[in-house]
Amino acid sequence: MFDRIRSDFWYELLNSPVTIVSAIIIVLMIIGCTFAPIFAPHTPFDPATISIMDNNMPPAWADGADPRFLLGTDLQGRDVLSAMLYGGRISLLVGIGAVALSVVIGMAVGLLAGYFGGMADAVLMRIAEIQFAFPPILIALLFNGILKASLPADVFAQAAVPIMILAIGLAGWVQFARIVRASTLVQRNQDYVTACHAVGLPTLTIILRHITPNILGPVLVLAMLQIAVAIVTEATLSFLGLGTPLTEPSLGALIQIGSQYLFSGVWWVVIFPGIMLLVMVVAFNLVADWVRDYLNPRLR
Amino acid sequence: MSHILCETKDLKITFPHRLGDFTAVHGFDLQVRRGEIVGLIGESGAGKSTVGNAIMGLLSHPGQVSGGRIELEGENLVDLPDAAKARMRGRRIGMIFQDPMTSLNPLMTVGGQLAESIAVLQNIPKAQARRMAIERLAGVGIAEPANRMDQYPHEFSGGMRQRVVIALAMAGDPDLLIADEPTTALDVSVQKQVLDLIKSICVERSLGVILVTHDMGVIAETADRVYVMRHGALVETGPTAQVIQTPSERYTKELIAAIPSIERREERFRNPVKKTGEIDQWLLQGHKDKGSGDYVTASALTKDFATKKKSFWGKAGTFRAVDIPGLIIKRGEVLGLVGESGSGKSTLGRMMTGLLPPSSGEVAYGDHGILAEVRSRAARKALRRDVQVVFQDPYSSLNSRMRVDQILAEPIRFHGLADRHDIPRLVGALLERVGLPAEAGRKFPHQFSGGQRQRICIARALSVRPRFLLCDEPTSALDVSIQADMLALLMELRRSLGLTMLFVSHDLAVVRQVSDRVAVMKRGEIVECREAEALYDAPKSSYTRMLLDTAPRATRRQ
């Protein structure tokens, strides 16, 4: 995977303008959201800096706008653009964090099931299939609900982001386990693995040093696709009021807040976070598609 | 002499690429007459298959004919529109592919495929086509064709499938038949029957046949004239006997000289040049007295594989892949193990090295005792160091994500055979020992050719200072010229390092070159095991004799 990059990576990338645009969008979003405190014109969730006098300002190009608020303000006078950057930070963190958790669990399960086969394979993959029979959002809801019921309210509100990562991550590992298991079954029977046995290398070394690098390609593609799915799942949960608290809203929570005022003419509070979520998800999908084609030359 | 059926004139085939076009074939002239088999021989990458595909109009994307003409009875095929080319395929030119496993549709009955092709190509009703299909199957030597019509490809053996493929290629009564490595995937005993069939069809129907192959033995047995190709150009052409016996070009001479003979043991393998160096001393370090005696002893060894259950509730049956009373490899000897595909030779080889546990019986090593009783971690490790393997496929036997020096350093480090600081120097010396530059360590496996990769595999096996080497078809995936170098290297290493070897191969000629003793396997059993020269000169078992008689040889036509 990495040695091919030197020769063909840039050529293939430059031949796909859609991918370049998507990649630039992702990079800009990650930078913009990560450093939201620097880039955001206001600090939207600090009550000391917001004024109720600025409420419901339209975007800067509309009548009656204030140039201080590029994309307008909401009911409480918070800057929409700043809220989007802070909210996007939470969405990206949850998306990437949840997928990282899924990858770790899924790879561990898939490698064990694929390499050892037999009983380990049967038990692990049956568990995976049982979970696969439920929609991921339901699993995430379930985990979220269990944690909400068992933790004190203040702790739950404090730990909203880690809890979302845990709930969505636990809901998404099955796909990784399946794809890793299938690849491991193929790699396990390759002669280079037999050569490792002939040298007498320990099983763990064979799995981690020899098999794992050879199965990362499909995992990488699935991970990029799953980041988009995880961001949407988080937004759905937050929209339903089960995710991040309203004092620290993610994109989904912003959309939920905005949707209440949509019909009173205050459209900007819901439309802009909605567009940002859409663009973010589409960009991740397009880049993932390109990576898949790049790693599998037969599809070209 | 009859008129020319098919001809290429100054044929040029180019594969455009962003870093510059690759010309696969430049200026190739070929002529085929009716009733004549023309051989097209060359090593991998010579462009021989590309010529065949171009005549058929089946160049793989993005290849294109960039110059010259392909004429079939005077008509230039290059400029034909695609639709006309498609009409021509099957009706005027038929093609036989290498792998009979993949060139038939597994979901259609054999008769269904054949009848469909006949109906479409000859434009006749289905029922008539079916009757004709039965005749055609009988024509290619399939017994009880009416019954076998309704069977699926998996119910046919490899040789029978290739007969069906030939019948399919002949469905539209073409004038020209292109056979691309038609027998490479088949066992020798079946190979001869298929070649005989192609020969007889060629004569009976006065067909022109282009036989594309890398195997000089196949050409010698079958072709009337031969074209030798290299790097996309013609090297030499002439009647087969003349080219093989008195080649005029240097490349052809080298090619023919590189073919191992089944008739005798060549000098160049018997007394290899002895190199000694620092690395050889390292490789011999820690080895006890060489001594004689038995190195590996297998007794009452069997291996069973589970077969598919007949029904959901049914019991899984077992298939006995190997069943031998005993086999001994003496210290410092090379034991050749030959057999056709499915004879259990690879399974036996893996059991002899402890890579596959036997179903019953035991394997014992002179230095370590009975394999199954070596339990302690240290003793296991010592045993694994002494026994190494070189595989057939140089592409799957190296981890493509690791650099070559990492691949070679890992076993040395794991077994603690050298000081940390010495490892890079040792890896370089090992690479040089197997005939590669020391800098090769900085590259990844895919940057090497098949032969070079096989050298890396040998270096990896040597890196733990082994005493016993299993070579599982180590030269089967390589071109003849490279094959000869590889055998010479293995034999030289064996002499210098006093290695004991088990050499598994389907190629009787190769085995003769390297083995002291030879065991012949058939359906999991050893039918004959004797001194190599005695076995080849006067085989006792009828099976061995049959194998020796059917093996194609380049030198028989004299």
Describe this structure in words.
The complex is a heterodimer of chains A (300) and B (558). Chain A has a single domain (73-299), classed as MetI-like (MetI-like fold). Chain A is elongated. Residues 1-5 of chain A have low confidence and may be disordered. Chain A has helices at residues 2-14, 17-34, 36-39, 80-116, 118-132, 136-150, 153-158, 160-188, 191-199, 203-239, 251-259, 268-295. By secondary structure, chain A is an all-alpha fold. In chain B, the strands form four sheets. Chain B has a six-stranded mixed beta sheet with strand order 6-7-8-3-9-10, sandwiched between helices. In chain B, strands 16-17-18-13-19-20 form a six-stranded mixed beta sheet, with helices on both faces. Chain B is built from 21 helices and 20 strands. Chain B has 558 residues and is of the alpha/beta class. Chain B folds into two domains: 36-57 and 81-107 and 152-258, Rossmann fold, CATH 3.40.50; 270-307 and 315-550, P-loop containing nucleotide triphosphate hydrolases (Rossmann fold, 3-Layer(aba) Sandwich). The model of chain B has no long low-confidence stretch (mean pLDDT 87). In chain B, a hairpin with a 3-residue loop joins strand 14 (360-365) and strand 15 (369-370). Classes of the chains: A mainly alpha (300), B alpha/beta (558). At the A-B interface, helix 9 and helix 10 of A face helix 14, strand 16, helix 15 and helix 17 of B.
Q: Report the C-alpha radius of gyration of chain B, rounded.
A: 26 Å
Number of E-type strands of chain A: 0
Tell me the overall shape of chain B: globular
Please identify, by name, the CATH architecture of the largest domain in chain B: 3-Layer(aba) Sandwich
Spatial strand arrangement across the major sheet of chain B: 6-7-8-3-9-10
Q: CATH fold name of chain A, please?
A: MetI-like fold
Largest contact between chains: A-B, 18 and 31 residues
Tell me how many strands of chain B there are: 20
Average predicted confidence as pLDDT of chain A: 85
Give average pLDDT of chain B, whole number.
87
User: Could you describe the largest sheet of chain B, including whether it forms a barrel?
Assistant: 6 strands, mixed
Low-confidence stretches of chain A: 1-5
Q: What's the CATH H-level homologous superfamily of the largest domain in chain B?
A: P-loop containing nucleotide triphosphate hydrolases
Structural class computed from helices and strand pairing of chain A: mainly alpha
